[in-house]
Amino acid sequence: MGIYDFKMKDAKGELVDLSDYKGKVLLIVNTATGCGFTPQYEGLQKLYDTYREKGFEILDFPCNQFGNQAPGSDEEIVSFCTLKYNTTFRQFSKIEVNGKNEAPLYAYLKGQKKGLFGSAIKWNFTKFLIDRNGNVIDRFGPTEIPEKIEDKIVSLL
Hints:
The chain has a single domain, classed as Glutaredoxin. 25% of the residues lie in helices and 20% in strands. It has helices at residues 40-51, 74-85, 104-112, 150-156, and strands at 7-9, 15-17, 25-31, 56-62, 90-91, 127-130, 136-140. β6 (127-130) and β7 form a beta hairpin. The two termini are 24 Å apart.
Protein backbone atom coordinates (compact mmCIF):
# COMPACT_ATOMS: atom_id res chain seq x y z
CA MET A 1 0.00 0.00 0.00
CA GLY A 2 1.28 3.45 -0.91
CA ILE A 3 0.14 7.05 -0.98
CA TYR A 4 -1.47 6.64 -4.38
CA ASP A 5 -3.79 3.90 -3.11
CA PHE A 6 -5.84 6.30 -0.99
CA LYS A 7 -9.03 8.10 -1.91
CA MET A 8 -10.10 11.10 0.17
CA LYS A 9 -13.11 13.43 0.10
CA ASP A 10 -12.36 17.01 -0.75
CA ALA A 11 -14.13 19.96 0.86
CA LYS A 12 -16.88 19.75 -1.76
CA GLY A 13 -17.56 16.11 -0.87
CA GLU A 14 -16.03 14.74 -4.07
CA LEU A 15 -13.89 11.61 -3.82
CA VAL A 16 -10.32 12.36 -4.89
CA ASP A 17 -8.02 9.53 -5.96
CA LEU A 18 -4.55 10.42 -4.72
CA SER A 19 -3.12 8.60 -7.74
CA ASP A 20 -4.14 11.78 -9.59
CA TYR A 21 -1.06 13.29 -7.96
CA LYS A 22 1.46 10.81 -9.37
CA GLY A 23 4.56 12.64 -10.55
CA LYS A 24 3.95 15.63 -8.24
CA VAL A 25 5.78 16.74 -5.12
CA LEU A 26 3.22 16.92 -2.32
CA LEU A 27 3.03 18.67 1.01
CA ILE A 28 0.25 17.14 3.11
CA VAL A 29 -0.79 19.29 6.07
CA ASN A 30 -3.35 18.93 8.86
CA THR A 31 -4.70 22.41 9.51
CA ALA A 32 -7.03 24.44 11.71
CA THR A 33 -8.56 27.87 11.26
CA GLY A 34 -8.42 28.99 14.90
CA CYS A 35 -4.87 28.00 15.83
CA GLY A 36 -1.82 30.09 16.64
CA PHE A 37 -0.21 28.45 13.60
CA THR A 38 -3.08 29.38 11.25
CA PRO A 39 -1.04 32.26 9.71
CA GLN A 40 1.08 29.50 8.12
CA TYR A 41 -1.62 29.44 5.44
CA GLU A 42 0.07 32.56 4.07
CA GLY A 43 3.43 30.80 3.72
CA LEU A 44 1.80 27.69 2.29
CA GLN A 45 0.03 29.75 -0.36
CA LYS A 46 3.26 31.53 -1.25
CA LEU A 47 5.00 28.17 -1.77
CA TYR A 48 2.09 26.97 -3.85
CA ASP A 49 2.09 30.08 -6.03
CA THR A 50 5.84 29.81 -6.55
CA TYR A 51 6.14 26.09 -7.34
CA ARG A 52 2.82 24.69 -8.59
CA GLU A 53 3.85 25.17 -12.21
CA LYS A 54 6.86 22.94 -11.48
CA GLY A 55 4.71 20.11 -10.15
CA PHE A 56 4.13 21.04 -6.49
CA GLU A 57 0.80 20.48 -4.75
CA ILE A 58 -0.45 21.11 -1.23
CA LEU A 59 -3.15 18.86 0.22
CA ASP A 60 -4.88 20.58 3.13
CA PHE A 61 -6.70 18.37 5.65
CA PRO A 62 -8.53 20.37 8.33
CA CYS A 63 -8.63 18.63 11.70
CA ASN A 64 -10.56 19.58 14.83
CA GLN A 65 -8.77 17.21 17.22
CA PHE A 66 -6.47 19.78 18.79
CA GLY A 67 -8.18 22.27 21.07
CA ASN A 68 -11.36 22.35 18.95
CA GLN A 69 -9.58 24.81 16.64
CA ALA A 70 -11.32 23.83 13.39
CA PRO A 71 -14.96 23.81 14.49
CA GLY A 72 -16.57 25.00 11.26
CA SER A 73 -18.09 23.02 8.42
CA ASP A 74 -15.97 22.20 5.37
CA GLU A 75 -17.65 25.08 3.54
CA GLU A 76 -16.94 27.52 6.40
CA ILE A 77 -13.29 26.45 6.55
CA VAL A 78 -12.83 26.93 2.79
CA SER A 79 -14.52 30.32 2.97
CA PHE A 80 -12.28 31.43 5.86
CA CYS A 81 -9.08 30.30 4.12
CA THR A 82 -10.06 31.81 0.79
CA LEU A 83 -11.12 35.16 2.22
CA LYS A 84 -8.37 35.60 4.84
CA TYR A 85 -5.39 33.91 3.13
CA ASN A 86 -6.42 33.72 -0.57
CA THR A 87 -5.72 29.99 -0.61
CA THR A 88 -6.05 28.23 -3.93
CA PHE A 89 -4.58 24.79 -3.13
CA ARG A 90 -6.92 21.86 -2.64
CA GLN A 91 -8.71 21.58 0.66
CA PHE A 92 -10.18 18.32 1.80
CA SER A 93 -13.00 17.41 4.12
CA LYS A 94 -12.25 17.60 7.84
CA ILE A 95 -10.62 14.43 9.18
CA GLU A 96 -9.13 12.94 12.33
CA VAL A 97 -5.39 12.31 12.29
CA ASN A 98 -5.07 10.31 15.52
CA GLY A 99 -7.09 7.68 17.37
CA LYS A 100 -9.65 5.08 16.47
CA ASN A 101 -11.28 7.29 13.81
CA GLU A 102 -8.07 8.49 12.18
CA ALA A 103 -8.04 8.67 8.41
CA PRO A 104 -6.20 5.68 6.91
CA LEU A 105 -4.05 8.14 4.94
CA TYR A 106 -2.71 9.55 8.20
CA ALA A 107 -2.12 6.10 9.68
CA TYR A 108 0.01 5.44 6.59
CA LEU A 109 1.89 8.76 6.75
CA LYS A 110 2.65 8.37 10.46
CA GLY A 111 3.86 4.83 9.83
CA GLN A 112 6.30 6.11 7.21
CA LYS A 113 7.74 9.01 9.22
CA LYS A 114 7.59 9.29 12.97
CA GLY A 115 7.90 12.62 14.75
CA LEU A 116 10.19 13.57 17.62
CA PHE A 117 7.86 11.95 20.14
CA GLY A 118 6.61 8.96 18.17
CA SER A 119 4.07 8.57 15.44
CA ALA A 120 1.11 10.53 16.81
CA ILE A 121 0.40 13.94 15.35
CA LYS A 122 0.96 16.38 18.21
CA TRP A 123 -0.79 19.48 16.85
CA ASN A 124 -2.14 21.36 13.85
CA PHE A 125 0.11 22.15 10.89
CA THR A 126 2.21 18.99 10.97
CA LYS A 127 3.52 18.59 7.42
CA PHE A 128 4.54 15.55 5.36
CA LEU A 129 6.69 15.99 2.25
CA ILE A 130 6.17 13.43 -0.51
CA ASP A 131 8.41 13.03 -3.56
CA ARG A 132 7.31 12.54 -7.17
CA ASN A 133 7.31 8.75 -6.70
CA GLY A 134 5.01 8.81 -3.68
CA ASN A 135 7.71 8.30 -1.05
CA VAL A 136 7.28 10.06 2.28
CA ILE A 137 10.55 11.99 2.47
CA ASP A 138 10.18 14.08 5.60
CA ARG A 139 7.89 15.14 8.41
CA PHE A 140 7.87 18.64 9.88
CA GLY A 141 6.36 19.74 13.17
CA PRO A 142 3.94 22.64 13.54
CA THR A 143 6.67 25.12 14.50
CA GLU A 144 8.53 24.55 11.24
CA ILE A 145 7.10 27.32 9.09
CA PRO A 146 6.60 26.73 5.36
CA GLU A 147 9.41 29.11 4.39
CA LYS A 148 11.92 27.00 6.34
CA ILE A 149 11.13 23.86 4.32
CA GLU A 150 11.24 25.55 0.92
CA ASP A 151 14.75 24.25 0.13
CA LYS A 152 13.65 20.65 0.71
CA ILE A 153 10.67 21.13 -1.59
CA VAL A 154 12.86 22.70 -4.29
CA SER A 155 15.33 19.79 -4.07
CA LEU A 156 12.52 17.38 -5.00
CA LEU A 157 11.23 19.45 -7.91
